[in-house]
Amino acid sequence: MMIRRNPSGDLPQVHPEAYVDNTAIICGKVIIEENVYVGPYAVIRADETDASGSLDPIVIRANSNIQDGVVIHSKAGAPVTIGFSTSIAHRSIIHGPCTIGDKVFIGFNSVIFNSTVGDGCVVRHNAVVDGCDLPPEFYVPSTMQLDADSDLDNIPRVHAEASEFSESVVCANHELVKGYKALSNEF
Length: 187
Description:
Layout: E1 2-4, E2 13-14, E3 19-20, E4 25-28, E5 30-32, E6 37-38, E7 43-46, E8 58-60, E9 65-66, E10 71-74, E11 80-82, E12 87-88, E13 93-100, E14 105-106, E15 111-117, E16 122-123, E17 128-130, E18 133-134, E19 139-140, E20 145-147, H1 160-184
């Protein structure tokens, strides 16, 4: 893995029980907790400061997975938090300020910016959530675009099948952490 300091001198903190692919780039004030899986070519970069020169961390909570090609960054040092047991699927962009809750699934190529995504939400593939706060358990269909003016009364709640799928992705990636950690001990 490529661990880099940011210009402010902050060095990422990666829990020894996490797995970060050696092609991923982790830069600056990033905290990765235990049993997190960070896939190939992911970029997690906490390096922009606010006007006073300070920045909040990007935090990836335990048992979450950041899949291949995901980009997580933040504007002007704003915080980004990815909750516990959350999946950020391939090539998604999470751009702060942003809070993603616990047990959330963000689908392939989705973009989340300046938003809060509540616990248990499912945001399907190629969706955009921009400047919108989603309450817990909302289901955002593929390709939907939400912003601050969106009427959330028309957004469905997560159904059991979507929750089960989200849980299966977390379990599969948790097994990848164990498997890749065991492989890395062979070399």
